[in-house]
Amino acid sequence: MCADKRQDPHFGTKLIHVGQNPSQWAYKDVIPPISLSTVYNQPSPGVIEDFEYTRTGNPIRSVLEKCLASLDHAEYALTYSSGMAATTSMVNLLVPGDHLLSSVDIYGGTHRYLAKVAIKAGILCSFIDFADPETVASHLQPNTKVVWFEAITNPLMRVIDVKLLCDAVHKVRPEVLVVVDNSFVTPYFQRPLLLGVDIVMYSVSKYMNGHSDCLMGSLVTNNKEVYDKLYFLQCTTGSVPSSFDCYLVNRGLKTLHLRMERHMSNALAVARYLEVHPKVLKVNYTGLESHPQYKLANSQFTGHCGMISFYINGGLKESTAFLEALKMFCITCSLGGFESLAALPCKMTHTSLSQKERLSVGILDNLIRLSVGLETIEDIISDLEQGFVASGAKDK
Ligand SMILES: Cc1ncc(COP(=O)(O)O)c(C=O)c1O
Predict the structure, then answer these.
(1) What is the chain's mean pLDDT, rounded?
(2) Considering only Cβ atoms within 10 Å of each terminal Cβ, which end of the chain, N or C, has fewer?
(3) Domain boundaries along the sequence of the chain
(4) What is the dihedral of CA 286, 289, 295, 297, to 10 degrees?
């Protein structure tokens, strides 16, 4: 299904080797050591050899940032204490009166931050449907500085045509920064900088780390001016990840390519099972031929992640009963770990949207989101099946 020729042939090697050269360490460690020191000795006052203070830089963070940049064919990567810290740092590039144009169909926490917090700092945010790139371009205002969207919308799994969107925005306003949250797709399946995006944001807490044991965010870019400003903000605001978390992510990253392949094959099997299930009204998965943007998804991505959403035949009672009955899937709001997770967006990830906003984008009470993990596929499907039986949902 994925066009292998569009895959970066060196991806697996970069994950394992970029930034990790043992010769940089005193003991030639093959696995980069965790430096817990917050301070680094200066040979003479004001002479900084490698690192000064861990907020401004740290050996293992530097290893990780080099590796992350290479995955997106980027010059620069910066890491943060969470995905939201990366987002807030990016928004800190703006000044009061600046406008940020966002897709309406984004992670609820990002929507909450933009609509309830950034606005207090005088950043004017508006939310529109990003389906048509020309419509997005027509909503640019003279003070628009950032266009923000997610490569696959959450939780409806709609695909944004990244290249057309960047072209449409930059044709009218070349200086506007187009920023994509690529957390669902990962650089393994899509490298947005090559499609015209200015900054890629990741909630590294998801697939990039992949083990649901640490929070982290990153921003990657090829724009030196933007990088310098972001680096200044990273040092100044201090929302940096700990050395230990950098170690965990650097370790988790080593298997990203293998994990994504299995997430894809498991998710495709689940999507096909759901698609013909009598208690399921509709399935949203970018790897299904029935997805309205299947062609676009396949031309833009080299594969598909493990994220699926579907409408169970019923309402809140049936969707809740289904989730409560799951034995192996955990009910939780996150995604991208090796374990299968399930969520009810209307009650969990998207409560910051009003009911009217939720209805307008299709986040109904019977919409269930799955993050399909790496377990044996037969066990994943049998857990879902017993969930359907217990849900009380009727056959359609
Ligand atoms: C698509 C997306 N972007 C950003 C975030 C925020 O990331 P973090 O939880 O690492 O702060 C999340 C969290 O769920 C997310 O799903």
Answers:
(1) 96
(2) C
(3) 4-253, 256-391
(4) 10
Number of continuous H segments (helices) and E segments (strands) in the chain: 14, 12
Atom of ligand 1 nearest to the CA of 215: 10
pLDDT, one tens digit per residue, over 313-332 is 999 999 999 999 999 999 99
List the beta strands (DSSP E) in the chain. Answer: 76-80, 99-103, 124-128, 144-150, 177-181, 199-203, 217-221, 280-284, 307-312, 330-331, 341-343, 367-371
C-alpha of residue 203 to centroid of ligand 1, in Å: 5
| Domain 4-253, classified CATH 3.40.640.10, yes or no | yes
Ligand 1 nearest atom to the CA of residue 154, by list position: 1
- The answer, yes or no, to whether residue 3 has pLDDT greater than 50, is no
Fold of the domain spanning 256-391? Aspartate Aminotransferase, domain 1 (3.90.1150)
The one-character DSSP state at 280 is: E
Residue whose C-alpha is closest to residue 242's, from 85, 73, 107: 85
d(CA 255, CA 360): 38
Confidence of residue 1 (pLDDT cuts 50, 70, 90): very low
CA 216 to centroid of ligand 1, rounded, Å: 9
C-alpha span between 199 and 220 (Å, rounded)? 6
**345 to 156, 268, 366, 388: CA distances (angstroms):** 10, 21, 9, 18
The 10s digit of each residue's pLDDT in 280-294 is 999 999 999 999 999
Does residue 206 carry a catalytic annotation?
A: yes
Compute, in angstroms, the gap from residue 112 CA to the centroid of ligand 1. 12
CA distance linking residue 98 with residue 142, whole number of Å: 9
